[in-house]
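Mods, move this if it's the wrong board.
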Amino acid sequence: QVQLVESGGGLVQAGGSLRLSCAASAGFTVSDYTMSWYRQAPGKAREFIADISGIRGSANYAISVLGRFTVSRDNARNTVDLQMSNLKPDDTAVYYCHANHIYWGRGTQVTVSS
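Not the wrong board. Structure tokens:
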């Protein structure tokens, strides 16, 4: 069973930045698989934010975060990170890591105050 642990969430003012990290359990190499970030705001469906492919490391983003969020991998730490800048109150949500279209982390709360 693959374990994913997200970290880095918190409270930030609008316009601020946060960096989320997703750590995978031993034996699962994040660079071998597509790794994704999703978020879920209260009362809303979970939505795709960004992903990074396993082989090429190419990234895709939701339009709502394009130009503000950057997804990357740290192979030495075996993590996938999400750098979030120019945060808006609408970015408030629980952010989830998703591995290989199968495994989910428990999420980390991001709250952006206006």
